[in-house]
Amino acid sequence: METLKVSANSKPKAVAGAVAAIIRKNGYVELQAVGAGAVNQAIKAIAIARGFLAPNGINLVMIPAFVEIEINNEKRTALKFIVEPR
């Protein structure tokens, strides 16, 4: 599964374009975000990607989950969003 890492500085429209491209290619994608700002950008990107794909008859759904990741040898909790067509 391809994983996109989203930060608070990520541009939602750019992430949405990547999400749409990966959905068209693989059928699903995973986004990871750590922190409120990153989660906000990820959610906006998913909503924008849904708009990109809807005219092609692709309706996206998102499954949220927690995941433990390591950043600079420190364990952190991230939110993982699995995005796939319904």
Indicate the mean pLDDT.
95
Per DSSP E runs of 2 or more residues, the count of β-strands stands at 4
Rg over CA atoms? 13 Å
Order of helices and strands: EHEHEE
Question: What is the makeup of the main sheet?
Answer: 4 strands, mixed
Topology:
Layout: E1 3-6, H1 12-26, E2 29-33, H2 36-53, E3 60-71, E4 74-85
Parallel strand pairs: 1-2
Antiparallel strand pairs: 2-4, 3-4
Helix pairs in contact: 1-2
Give short descriptive properties of this protein.
alpha+beta, four-stranded mixed beta sheet, 2 helices, Translation Initiation Factor IF3
What does it look like?
By secondary structure, the protein is of the alpha+beta class. The chain has a single domain, classed as Translation Initiation Factor IF3. 38% of the residues lie in helices and 38% in strands. The protein has two helices and four strands. The protein has helices at residues 12-26, 36-53, and strands at 3-6, 29-33, 60-71, 74-85. Strands 1-2-4-3 form a four-stranded mixed beta sheet. Strand 3 (60-71) and strand 4 form a beta hairpin. The two termini are 17 Å apart. 23% of the residues are buried. The model has no long low-confidence stretch (mean pLDDT 95).
Offer a quick outline of the entry.
This protein has helices at residues 12-26, 36-53; strands at 3-6, 29-33, 60-71, 74-85. The chain is of the alpha+beta class. The chain has a single domain, classed as Translation Initiation Factor IF3 (2-Layer Sandwich).
